[in-house]
Amino acid sequence: MILLLAAAPVSELRGAIPYGILVAKLSLTEVLILALLGNLLPVVPLFFGIQFVLNGLNRFRYTKKFGLWIVETTKRRATIVERYEAIGLALFVAIPLPMTGAWTGIIAASLFKIKFRYALLAVIIGVFIAGAVVTGLTLSGSELFHLLYQR
């Protein structure tokens, strides 16, 4: 379940790590390995396949709007990627907020024509930073919750 949550475009690490720690109650090592691996699994196919998917969406009247929404939303949110390229991409992926993870980052890398090797390294760095941030927030929040509600 952790692997699937981490690989999914909406939850990514933001859902997988808290689930693994708080719900599945697995060891921190197991959670991090599964979450990081799951979040990185779709990166390569997505980088090389996003143009094919967008072209397919643009072929049909009913799906063209969705394809345009993906492109416009990604470009609007990823101005840091456009400006700073690979470094901006790493920072963009590292911020654990909605629409800023590996999925959106790798789509932005493809749209802004960042070379694959730089994009891959930047996304890996960003995912590891995001994993550390989400883990820290999850553990801190869990401890605070236990302190406040154990009475």
What does this structure look like?
- The protein has helices at residues 2-7, 12-23, 28-40, 43-58, 61-77, 79-94, 102-111, 116-149.
- By secondary structure, the protein is mostly helical.
- It has one domain.
- Helix 2 (12-23) packs parallel to helix 8 and helix 6 runs antiparallel to helix 7.
- The protein is elongated and about 55 Å long.
- The chain starts with a helix and ends with a helix.
Strand content: under 5%
What structural category do the secondary elements indicate? mainly alpha
Based on DSSP secondary structure assignment, what is the total number of beta strands? 0
Global morphology: elongated
Distance between the termini: 32 Å
Domain unit count: 1
Helical residue percent band: over 70%
- Computed over alpha carbons, the radius of gyration is 17 Å
How many strands, what sense, and barrel or not for the largest sheet? Answer: none
What sequence of helices (H) and strands (E) makes up the elements?
A: HHHHHHHH
Low-confidence stretches: none
User: What is the number of helices?
Assistant: 8
The mean pLDDT is 94
Give a quick rundown of the structure:
It contains 8 helices and no strands.
